[in-house]
Design goal:
With 131 residues, this protein is mainly α. It is built from 5 helices and no strands. The chain starts with a helix and ends in a 50-residue tail after the last helix.
Amino acid sequence: MMREEFEKYMSVKPCPGCKGARLKPEALAVRVGGKNISEVTALSVVEAVKFFVSLDLTQREQLIAKQILKEINERLGFLVNVGLDYLTLGRSAGTFRGRGPAHPAGHPDWLRPDGRPLYTGRAKYWPAPEG
């Protein structure tokens, strides 16, 4: 009840300094492949895979970034393999908590929002839905 009362006086406005990125200007100034961290995390998993594969790095940059790029590509590959390639990287952990179903009413939760099956048969971690 108190929450509803307080929400009358609240509004959602992005910070004019970071434009809603929630990062310091110094962090946003660092760019890789023409994008800052906020722009990269706004990509879907599929778009991020394409971005990291197409990075044009110098030999020195490749040497510096080798291990982190390996980790990024492995984690993105995992998300693709379990069928979560439509998600964006910038989602917070509580995105769906308390907000109702992630899909419209009547939409099976084993389908992605675009209607494609969430379970592709490639995932080893969840069984495919029956029926």
